[in-house]
Amino acid sequence: MNVSLKTGFLLKGFSDGRKLQVLHAVLFLIPYLLAIMGNLLIITIITLDHHLHSPMYYFLKHLSLLDLCFISVTVPQSIANSLMDNGFISFGQCMPQVFFFISLASSEVAILTVMSYDRYVAICRPLQYETIIDKLACKLAVIAVWMAGGLSGLIHTAFNFSIPLCGQRIIHQFFCDIPQMLMLACSYEFINEVAVAAFTTSTAFVCLITIVFSYVQILTVMRILSADGWTKVFSTCLPHLFVVSSTQLQASSF
Hints:
Elements: E1 8-11, H1 18-48, H2 55-84, E2 88-90, H3 91-124, H4 129-132, H5 135-160, E3 170-171, H6 178-182, H7 191-222, H8 227-253
Parallel strand pairs: 1-3
Antiparallel strand pairs: 1-2
Helix pairs in contact: 1-2, 2-3, 2-8, 3-5, 3-7, 3-8, 5-7
């Protein structure tokens, strides 16, 4: 194994016991298939139902697509490794895994921010909604989301795989986890990656603040609305809040 580790890593996220490995594969497979079917159902319904061709559901469809791709980056590989009793992953597998994991995670945070802004404009500035959130703005926002995620993934991957590694290349995780990989660095030359990670974390924090600010503004407006207004607000905001919650639950389960 030491010879093969020169061309990759050994993932040690779970027990070496055969029965526990099979149990891990089954426990991962069931929620993975449910998540795949749920996201495909959302994408299909929004695509086929013309009544749902609005900005809110347009963003929701792309969020479901991102979520579907995100969980497919690491979970199938982990299931296969458990079933084959082989935790080895090559550089050729690890590098794209890191890229897509960071890219899709960053894109999910970005599109959740866009969706919160969409709800803010719809509730707080309804007369200007069609002017601000038109079809072109929606397309540009989605393009920006995917490009920002891709750029983040590219920067992380470039820095992470340019760091010289020492010792046994064992990752105590079920996928190529960047913090675990940084622990294998020969020296403090990984300071650039730490700086990139700090920048990414700061960006995610700004997105979180934006989401919170948007809903604080919405709650402020709700205080002066009638009962019909409250119903309208809930009907437009609940899909976003539900997807945010389900996304976080899926991420925590994997």
